[in-house]
Amino acid sequence: MATVVASRAVEIEMPEQASLWSDAWRRLRRNRLALVSTIYLVLLVAVALIALVWTPYRMSAIGIAPTYQGITSAHWLGVDSLGRDILSRLMVGTQVSLVVGLGTQVFVLLVGVPIGLAAGYYRGWFDNVVSLVINIFYGIPDVLVAMIMVFLLGPSLTNIIIAIVVTRWMDMARLVRGQALSLREREFIEAGRAAGAKPFKMLFGHILPNALGPIIVQATLGVPGAILFEAFLSFLGVGVQPPTPSWGSMAADGVRAIEFAPHIVIAPSIALSLTLIAFNFLGDGLRDALDPRSRR
Amino acid sequence: MFTKGMAIYIGQRIVLIAFTVLVVSSVVFLGIHRLPGDALLNEKVKGAAYLALLHHYGLDQPLYVQYENYLVGIVTRGDLGESLVNRGLQIRPLVERELAVSAEVGGLALVFTIGLGIVLGVFAAVRQNTWLDYLLTTTSVVGYSMPNFVIAAFLILVFGVWLGNATQGTFYYQLGAWKGDIGQIWLPAFALGFPYASYVARLTRASMLEVIRQDYVRTARAKGLSEITILVRHALRNALIPVTTILGPLTIGIITGSVVIENVFGIPGLGKEFAQSILNRDYAIVIGVFTMYAGMVGLANLLVDLGYVVLDPRIRY
After folding, report:
1. Contacts of A145 in chain B (CB under 8 A)
2. Three-state SS for A219?
3. Which residues in chain A land under pLDDT 70?
4. Partners of residue A235 in chain B, C-beta under 8 Å
5. Cα dihedral sign for B258, B260, B265, B266?
6. What per-residue confidence (pLDDT) applies to A295?
7. How far apart are CA A224 and CA A275, in angstroms?
8. Which residues pair with A79 in a beta bridge?
9. CA–CA separation, B199 vs B205, rounded Å?
10. How far apart are CA B57 and CA B115, in angstroms?
11. pLDDT band at residue B36, thresholds of 50, 70 and 90?
């Protein structure tokens, strides 16, 4: 393909050549905020991978510099209350945030999509039960339930992910249910049923592909929610346990020393904020790109 | 507006709320009592003293009897039990006192959230596609992306440390001083409400944009009404209906957010108690406070649903 000129004339000349995905990709690239966010997130993943094999200092090594020391050439982001290198801990904290953010969305998809598809497609009593359960789950304070769950199950990364999935699965289920409800009335579904397609083939072969756009957007916007959730838990001391660093627990450490060593709270706060902002901009960009009706 | 159908609806909802609270607190109660370990056993308390202590809390009885006593206590006397860590401390008066503190900070945050959110949303909608609109819509994403403890940390940094000489750190919450001085709670309330204010602003903008294009707004303009009257009396009232749908989640957000914010600012409220009781493993308080929260969230959702009726006469229950 030659260079795509961003003008109306080109679009009108060859509209049938752009599939949904290439069309969406073109629109996403044109959204500058989403593009910058994508680049930032790619770099973030790179940092997380690098931290697997290399950090400037060992993240749990204490007393490698005077405690509370500010920014120096040896420690670019300073050291914390136990004399640990903040940059190294920030890099390892990236892994925690990304694993929680992406991991929860994988499980939310595994739980929410089949339930939503079945409820929306079959309707009837199953749909009623699912809707009632979703409404009950919306009525409970999620962070507090997660705190109690992590407290009961024991604070580990796996349990934190379980707690977030249990309290947030219904966003996806509700969205997929709505999509399935409207898609099941369309002609191609009727045609599939008339052709004798099996239920599994109907749900995952015909309904799911047509609902993929909103699902991708919802999953992307769910990532910052989960990262924030984990940071909340760790900030309160019921999340990831020491010595594993989490941006939330690093910020909590920093708040305690805010009057004389503000650099400790600033670094994780900025990392956390930028990451959440990037995921939200990417999600918004995907929404604009995948949903042609919202085209500006 | 208030009909028989509505009374039935409210009744049903209250039954459902009570049911949810009961189920949720039962799950927490049974879950906690299934934990291995013994909160009361330590090197200082042994033998007869330990047995007496068990008896004092009723922990020597079978689990189903404990559960029954717990339920009867809640339903008949509103009794939430006694703290396991600070012996003799009754939970109900404690929780009531702390609720008053939390309600003040949370209430201010709610007012702030809704007020600021609506004002910014209306401005962005009226000036659609100008630099103001772009600025507001972009910053609103930044606003609701930032964790509230990050906002709180920066507020403390600015007002407490960098401007420390000017404010003398007086925004720190002091018990007893809170009734007269709003200056001590506005920073926590801001940190609590700001992420949600951005969200409200976004929603208000979107629904204002739909409403101000409608014919009846043009009619109002043709009648020669002032722009303020058109916006506030005619457009905003209808634009607010979609916005009210997020008031329920918003209330939950403020309540859960208060758990963090009260810890950062040292506010002696319900949220701080909840977080600390979890860390102290004071199960009785965790169950009590959580039951309270579940009930509050249920009632808040009910109030929101009733609020629709006030805003939109077409909705009846």
Report:
1. 24
2. helix
3. 1-18, 292-296
4. 147, 149, 260
5. positive
6. 44
7. 8
8. A85
9. 10
10. 47
11. low
Q: Give the CA-trace dihedral at A135, A137, A140, A141, to 10 degrees.
A: -120
d(CA A93, CA A269): 12
Q: Using N-to-C axis directions, what is the helix angle for A157-183 and A124-138, rounded to 10°?
A: 130
- Token pair for A72: 């120096």
Q: Using an 8 Å Cβ cutoff, are A226 and A239 in contact?
A: no
The predicted-structure confidence for A11-70, as pLDDT tens digits, reads as follows: 555 555 667 778 788 888 888 888 999 999 999 999 999 988 888 887 777 777 777 777
Calpha distance A248→A265 (Å, rounded):
10
User: CA A277, CA A283: separation in Å to the nearest integer?
Assistant: 10
Nearest-angstrom CA–CA distance, B239 and B250:
18
Place of tokens 């630099």: B131
Using beta carbons and an 8 Å cutoff, which residues of B are at the interface with A? Answer: 17, 20, 24, 28, 31-32, 35, 138, 141-142, 144-147, 149-150, 152-154, 156-157, 160-161, 248-249, 252, 255-256, 259-260, 263-264, 274-275, 278-279, 286, 290, 293-294, 297-298, 301
Q: A226 with A168: CB under 8 angstroms?
A: yes
Indicate if the pLDDT at residue B267 is higher than 50.
yes
User: Of B145, B259, B263, which has the smallest distance from its Cβ to A224's Cβ?
Assistant: B145
> Within its chain, how far is the Cα of A282 from the centroid?
10
Q: Which of A9, A220, A205, A199 is nearest to A104 (CA)?
A: A220
Nearest to B62 by CA among B36, B30, B89: B30
What is the C-alpha separation between B27 and B37, in angstroms, rounded?
19
Write the DSSP string, B16-74. HHHHHHHHHHHHHHHHHHTSSS-SS--SSS-HHHHHHHHHHHTTTS-HHHHHHHHHHII
Q: How far apart are CA A100 and CA A153, in angstroms?
A: 17
User: Residue A294: which residues within 8 A CB-CB, separation 6 or more?
Assistant: A287, A288
Cα B230 from Cα B220, distance rounded (Å): 6
ipTM over 0.90: no
The SS3 of residue A16 is helix
Nearest CB partner across the interface for B294, out of A140, A277, A284: A140
- By Cβ distance, the residue of A141, A235, A254 closest to B252 is A141
Output the six-digit token pair for B147: 């964790």
Task: For residues A78 and A67, give the distance between their C-alpha atoms in angstroms, rounded to a whole number.
Answer: 9
CB contacts < 8 A, A to B, total 114
Q: Do B275 and A152 touch (CB under 8 A)?
A: no
- Residues A206, A188: contact at Cβ < 8 Å? yes
Q: Which residue of B has its CA nearest to A150?
A: B278
Torsion of CA B25, B188, B138, B253, to 10 degrees: 10
Q: For residue B11, what are the contacts with CB-CB under 8 A and spacing of at least 6? A: none
Residue type present at position A80 = D
Place of tokens 């199950």: A153
